[in-house]
Amino acid sequence: MSHHLLLILHLLGACVWVGGHLILSVTILPQVLKKKDVKLLLDFEKKYEKTGIPALFLMVITGVWMSYQFGIGFSNWFHFSNPIETVISLKLILLLTTVLFAISANFFVIPKLTVKTLPLMAFHILSVTTIGVLMLLLGSFVRYGGLSF
Fold first, then answer.
1. Are 106 and 49 in contact (CB under 8 A)?
2. At what angle do helices 38-69 and 83-104 cross, to 10 degrees?
3. Which of 36, 62, 136, 143 is the most buried (most CB within 10 A)?
4. What digits encode the pLDDT tens for the residues 10-23?
5. DSSP assignment, residue 13?
6. CB contact at 8 A, 135 and 94
7. Which residue in 71, 75, 97, 90 sits closest to 139, CA to CA?
8. Residue 72: strand, helix, or coil
9. What pLDDT sits at residue 88?
């Protein structure tokens, strides 16, 4: 598959993933916290999950595929040996962090979600949103040859 098509699919996934989290953080979460309405949050989560999770999987698949097209295979990850590999490694670290937040939210926070635990859920939401935006920004550096320190 051409790199350009992979990039388009990757960016479409990012639109859904990051866009959905921005809507959640900027629009839904303030209403939930103001009204102290857990149901509003759970309703959004249930609807968004149907498109958000496939978008995340699409980004993982296309991101790994593009990594290999750049010559950065599994054995090169996390070496920070060149600017493109640095971007890929940082994005993978952020992806793993996102997965940890998802595990925490789905197994520990959401099952016990109450008005009292809303701040913890808000922390999870804002963290994953921030990570998504950071991943988007990091990806933009690939166009300029990567990221070097």
1. no
2. 150
3. 62
4. 999 999 999 999 99
5. H
6. yes
7. 90
8. coil
9. 97
